[in-house]
Each structure stands twice: as structure tokens, then as C-alpha cells.
Amino acid sequence: WTATFSRLFFNCASLTSSPALPSTSIAEWWYAQMFFSCNGLTEPPELPATSMWTYGYYQMFLNCVNLKSSPEIHISTVSDSWLLGMFQWCTSLKTAPSILPATTLVDNCYANIFSWCSSLKTVPILPATTLTYGCYTSMFNNCTSLTICPELPATTLADSCYSYMFAWCKNLQSLPLLPATTLTDTCYIMMFNGCTNILLSTSTTYIFLPFSFSPPKLKILILLKFAPPHIPSIQSVFPQSCGPLLRWGGYRVCRMHDRQL
């Protein structure tokens, strides 16, 4: 069966509680947009499912602006876009699931799951080591209360896997290690775009920005925006050699894969 509960409570703005959802195996579009814009909902139902097909939780709580917490996720074998936009625009959401347990991901599986959750303060553990196209795209986009990042253990990346992942997280203060040794097109594009509070030095203000357009032969760039008139040496930020440096658009540019943060 497909789309069994899809849009069941679509735009029920006065709904304040959810029925139990005991299904352990979920078909395509099963709970898609089930609670779309249920503005009276503050607590989610438990989600005991352990297996799921494509789009199973697609935008399940989209625009539930008073939802404050998220249920735990127990599914370790995922399908395309299964959590896409699950909590998107839940602007009161403060806590994420403790872990998203899948270690092998599929296309767009976590894309936009927390985008525009402006009150979110926690992040789930992300143990995945096998990534695919767009798997984390815009996952935390515009989570403006977020100050920390999850660890990202994958060493082999996929096209657009981290694109816009933390874009416009304006209070983000720490960066994850990026241990990947095998890169692909647009894998990090705009990953930290607009993260204006990230500092690379406690004594001198630097702003870390990903670069959206690369010069020839450079796929991944780190830009260090400096405050004139003083321009410190690159070694004051990266004690070890950062590899060849370029001037590009008024910034000092360093290849990311030559020096992990």
C-alpha cells in the first residue's frame, strides 16, 4: 500500500495531539505531509518503524510551527528522499533525534530535514560513511540558533552531498573535521555559506566561507576574509603548510584538502 496516511491531517491548524502510529514497516509516501501545517501540534507521535520505502516521512511535519521536539528515528536502511523536509519550517523545534542510524545513505535522504528550524539547538549523530547525491543537502539550512556541528566521518564523498548543509547558520561557532580524501563535484559547495560567526582565531577575526565558484583545477576553497589594514600570514591560522595560495576576488584562498580544520 502507498500513501496510506498521506495528508491525513493536512492543514488541521487546531490539531493538538496525534494518534499512535504503530506501523513498523512503511510503504512509499506512507506518512507524507501527514501533519502539514498543524500549528497546534507541540509534541510528535513516536515512530517505531524499522523499515521504509521512498518518501515515507516526506515533509511529515512541514510548517508545524509550534512543534518543540522530534521523535527518535529507528530506521537504519534508508530509501530515496525518505526524510526529505520532515521538519522543515518547524520554527519552534529545539531538539533533533539523538541519532540518524543509517551508515549507508541514498539520494536526498536527509535533504532539508531541519531547514529553517530557527530554534534548533541540538544535532543528531550522523554515523554514515557511504554518501550519495544530495544526501545532506540543506539539512540545517537557516538553523540560526545552532552553534555546533555533528561529526562527519565519511572519507569518500558524492556529488552535492554536503551542499548548503549549514548555510546561513549565523550562530554556528565550531566546524567539524572534514576527513574526506576522495572528493567529487560540488561536494562542499556553499556548505557554510553565511555562517558569519565562525572564527579561525581567538586573537584575530577571520570569517570562514566556502567558495561557490572555483578557479581552474581547484574544486574546494577556503576563504579567509581579513580586516584591513593588517593582513596576517596564513601560518597564523594554519600552523602547518596550507599548500599553494592564490589571490581570488580580494581574498586569500587555500585548498581545503591540503589542511583539515
Write the topology of this structure.
Layout: E1 25-26, E2 51-52, E3 207-210, E4 221-225, E5 245-248, E6 251-255
Parallel strand pairs: 1-2
Antiparallel strand pairs: 3-4, 4-6, 5-6
Strand portion: 5-15%
Low-confidence stretches: 203-261
State the total count of DSSP E strands. 6
Round the Cα radius of gyration to an integer and report it: 20 Å
Assembly level: single chain
Mean pLDDT: 82
Elements, N to C (H/E): EEEEEE
Percent of residues in helices comes to under 10%
Shape, principal axes of CA atoms: globular
Calculate the terminal CA-CA distance, rounded to whole Å: 47 Å
**In what order do the strands lie side by side in the largest sheet?**
3-4-6-5
Number of helices: 0
Helix/strand class: little secondary structure
Report the sheet with the most strands, covering strand number, pairing sense and barrel closure. 4 strands, antiparallel
